[in-house]
Design a protein that fits this description.
Layout: H1 4-33, E1 53-56, E2 81-92, E3 99-106, E4 111-112, E5 117-119, E6 130-136, E7 151-154, E8 162-172, E9 187-193
Antiparallel strand pairs: 1-2, 2-8, 3-7, 3-9, 4-5, 5-6, 6-8
Length: about 190
């Protein structure tokens, strides 16, 4: 017959390993169902000695491109474009010998995924059914937020400024849906260094 101390020692020998096993399975369930677990993630990037300065229409990085005033009759059918304006974007003080992709991204007003255009700000006094389409100097549309839609800048080994021209125009989204009013669309410029 086991005495109390021997019985307690015997039970401890059986229960202690079970107590250590129980929390592990409890932690596994908790880890699978919450964000409390830590998973290693590796970040890889490139640190350049310098980045480019963006120069829009010779006025620096913050510039407005003002489209001409047009009549709604010019934007009557879906897909009509009118009122274009050329502008330029120069890159200077870039790392020499680099290829840089410049693409437009939505910033503020957003983009229409079906047309690739910038959408107009909504609200009182703003035109409805009007978007802003961007093209490169060759006439090819530069779709907003599209990684495959960009203008290539080849920076010479001398590192001098490289400039490309672009075109912005009004675009009708929907037939007979455009209304008179203001247009205010905002895009960001993103540079990808290769």
């Amino acid at each position: 017959m086991l005495k109390n101390r021997e019985l307690i020692a015997c039970l401890n020998g059986i229960l202690l390993p079970l107590l250590f096993l129980m929390p592990v399975s409890g932690w596994a369930e908790e880890c699978a169902n919450s964000m409390g677990c830590k998973i290693p993630v590796t970040f890889i990037g490139t640190y350049l000695e310098s980045t480019c300065e963006v120069n829009i229409d010779g006025r620096g990085v913050e510039s407005n491109v003002t489209l001409p005033t047009i009549a709604t009759a010019n934007l009557h059918r879906d897909g009509d474009e009118a009122g274009s304006r050329l502008f330029q974007i120069g890159l200077r003080s870039c790392p020499s010998g680099k290829n840089i992709k410049l693409r437009f991204v939505s910033a503020g007003t957003g983009a229409d995924g079906s047309t690739g255009n910038l959408v107009n700000t909504s609200g009182e006094g703003m035109s409805r059914g009007v978007q802003v389409r961007l093209r490169n100097s060759g006439g090819k549309q530069l779709q907003i937020d599209d990684n495959n839609s960009f203008q290539q800048y080849v920076i010479p080994s001398s590192g001098e400024e490289v400039t490309h021209y672009y075109e912005a125009s009004y675009y009708a989204k929907g037939t007979g849906t455009t209304t008179p009013g203001l247009v205010n669309a905002i895009a960001g410029v993103e540079l990808v260094y290769n």
